[in-house]
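Hi R.,

Here's the chain you asked about this morning:
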Amino acid sequence: MLSATLWENNAMTMCCLKNAAAAIASGALLFAGPALAQQADDMTEMAAEQTALEARASQVVDIINGESGTPLYEVFTQAFLSQVPATQLQTIFAQLTGQFGPALSVESLGSPNANRSALSIRMEGAIASGGIAIDPAQGNRISELLFQTFEPVNDSPEKIEADLSALSGKANALFAKLSDDGVIEPVFAHNSDQPLALGSAFKLYVLSALAQSVADGERSWDDVVTLSQRSFPSGQMQDWPDDAPVTLQTLATMMISISDNTATDQLIAELGRETIEAELIASGNSDPSLTIPFLKTRELFAMRGVSEEFIERYRAADDDGQRVILANLSEEDVLEDKIREAFANDRPGAIDIEWFASPLDLASLLRGFTSSENATARSVMGVNLHMSDQVAARWDYVGYKGGSEPGVINLTWLLRDSAGDYWIATVGWNDPERAVELSTLETIAQRIIALIAID
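And here is the predicted structure, written out as tokens:
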């Protein structure tokens, strides 16, 4: 099947993290490399009063700022750099300093006499906290570096607004309380009425349609169906046996937690395309025509792998014409080699053929998940939080779904505070001309969520 580097999930969706060892995963910037038993030079310079770990932690400050005079292969282990090449490391740190300003100093180092310790770096606009490890067998080179949380310092909605506005293409965002009477109380909003492509965050509409069908007594979460659909990764179920029995709740959990595309297409087939389109409209989507016909993931893959003439013909057709085109897709149109080639250069395809919603649309949709009868749907959303433990611990409930393909990212959370009030936090970024950076948008999302203090 397709490589896992195509159409991800860990928590993002439709497109596997290309920087898997170095991605800010809902506030977690992770670099890790296992130690190798090989000879390496000793550290070139270390102040006599510093331990080896203290010296390396101090070097991290200069490396983040791009001011280290020491080559990175003399600072990090070979195994580390094999997972996170030096150029990639420099790019990620440049993104961090672009958002938070330069690194200023080591704020704290929990166990300076050890080989592994908690580490906090003070940056101009945030405290970056996580951990560091060194390998004495390799000249005390850094073998692990983890920034798990970024606590903004002197941040503001205006600064976040400026950073979103500076992104290429289009971006939108909303952080707001979802009141029972339907009023949205925003803490932060940026182009909140602007529909953008969602990537796999569209699967929230499938989950909502399923939850509504259960609430109407048409189906039960424990209903068993046989697996008949087959899509491409992300996911696992594309490799499951034909006709494998599986419950609707299992399909929903796989769809949301690991963004399983085969599970998604199976649910769309079970519910019916028109049922989900009706849910799209009923939920208050401001421009449902952008998403109708409601594509299966396999069909979206085909849109990226067939000819430009095919795409233009689809664009030019009305909804009924597009349904005919989809009905006539052949196995030849969905060959793996074609899809692999379409994604090979990580360039955006026809991202105007996708699933669309604005932040306000998503707020209207997620409000439906807050009712008591939707506890199962919330539990499905709560499997993969895409948020650091420290941030998640501040909330009584966290649910998540995100999505991406080249040129598309969406990150959406449903949150509940200790008072029982529900919130939405969502950010989106589309650029039809170039790939967009997950780490950049995730860091902005964390800053937005940090705008309010939660007990």
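One quick note: Residues 1-48 have pLDDT under 50 and may be disordered.

Cheers,
M.
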